[in-house]
Specification:
With 121 residues, this protein is an all-alpha fold. It contains seven helices and no strands. The protein has two domains: 69 residues, Orthogonal Bundle (434 Repressor (Amino-terminal Domain)), CATH 1.10.260; 45 residues, no CATH class.
Length: 121
């Protein structure tokens, strides 16, 4: 599941809206919406995110947060380390190999390292 998919599911559940109903209401198939929630589809388009915000009557900071989650939710990430320090290439490859086995605490630690270095989430 992607960060966007997780938040979308939370929004639906908080409001008691089924996946099938929401899909029908916003004009997408329930299979597509399910795949989007589960991370089996690429990140949603800006327009779809805006449509979802309007559907849930989300504005301001919450809408910006949902858009940022969408940007962070591509399930297949490509990291181009050409021209970077060889340490960056090594780290990117090690992370690609190991990320699925890392426990939540380790993922939180890595995210904190990025935050400490001023890299926003």
């Amino acid at each position: 599941m992607t960060p966007f998919g997780q938040r979308l599911r939370e929004l639906r559940r908080e409001r008691g809206i089924s996946l099938k109903r929401m899909a029908s209401d916003i004009g997408v198939s329930s299979a597509y919406l399910s795949a989007l929630e589960h991370g089996h589809r690429g990140r949603p388009t800006f327009m779809l995110v805006q449509h979802i915000c309007a559907y849930f009557n989300i504005i301001w900071d919450e809408a910006e947060e949902l858009q940022r989650l969408a940007e962070l939710s591509h399930p297949r990430v490509v990291i181009d380390t050409s021209g970077m320090n060889p340490k960056a290439t090594r780290l990117a490859n090690r992370l690609a190999e190991a990320i699925g086995a890392l426990p939540d605490g380790a993922l939180d630690e890595l995210a904190e390292v990025l935050r400490r270095h001023g890299l926003r989430e």
